[in-house]
Each structure stands twice: as structure tokens, then as C-alpha cells.
Amino acid sequence: MGGGGGGRSLGPSDLHKLEQIARESLRDAAQPEKRNVFISFVEEDLDEVNLLRGQAKNDKSNLEFNDWSLQEPFESDKAEYVKRGIRERIRQASVTVVYVSDKTARSKWVDWEIRESIKLGKGVIAMYKGESPPAALPTAIVENKIPLVPWNHKAISSAIDKSRS
Length: 165
Hints:
Blueprint: H1 12-30, E1 35-40, H2 46-57, E2 65-67, H3 79-92, E3 95-100, H4 108-119, E4 123-128, H5 139-143, E5 148-150, H6 153-163
């Protein structure tokens, strides 16, 4: 009556393997999923953005993402060529993080990247360093009521999780 399973009992090494598989499965489930992030910023803020990138790679940080933004500027004066390349990077990301500083509001490229991210259905957040955000922000941030978060790993991670598409 009943039963199945072929009549084989598990030996100590089988149990050890099953326990190891279970532990690995639980550990993997506990790891936060890395987010694919495009970082929008002005070239003058590259050092700050590189610091953020480095912090995201630090094992002790709870800020973790795959960076799909440009590491080097496109070498072209042809706007459409540059836009195609940036658009593809945004398409590969689930969230655009805009690093805002005193210089960001003047950037037509940052404003375009925000609008393109929204058009492509991507989540967008803006982050700032210091006590408060800069007085002047890109128009697209203001018009679309993009959330502003301080440069704080927990705040950024939480905003990325809430904003991702």
C-alpha cells in the first residue's frame, strides 16, 4: 500500500549533500537582487559618481547595483548617435539614478536622459550629496516630481527598489 520512492534510504553523505543544498538555497534567497541602474550626471561630477560606483562594489555596503551608465563619454558631436547609445544603456537598466549637484540643472543631456528614462518606462530617482538638494534642479525632475533622496546607502537602495520597472 502507498509509498513510492523506490525503497532507497538516504545515507549520511546524502543527508549532508541535501543540507548543503538547502543552506545554499536559503543563502541565495536572502541575497538582495542586484538592480540594473543607469546613472545620469554631468561630466564635472564624474569623481563623485565614481565614488558611488565604488561604494556599490564594496562587499560591506548594502548599496548594490549593476551600473549600465556610460563609463566614458561618447566621442562624437553627432547628437543622434550619442542619444542612440545612451538610449540603449537606459533600456538595459530598470532604474535611472540622477546625481544632482549645483551643475546638473544646466545640463540638457541630463534633462534628456530623465525624460528618455520616463518614456522608456524606467523608474527614476534623484540623489544629492550634503544636507539638502541643490536649489536648482533639472526641469524634468521638477515637472515629473522625481523623488529626491540623500546620498545614504539605505535611502538610495530603498528608492531604487521602489522605483524600478
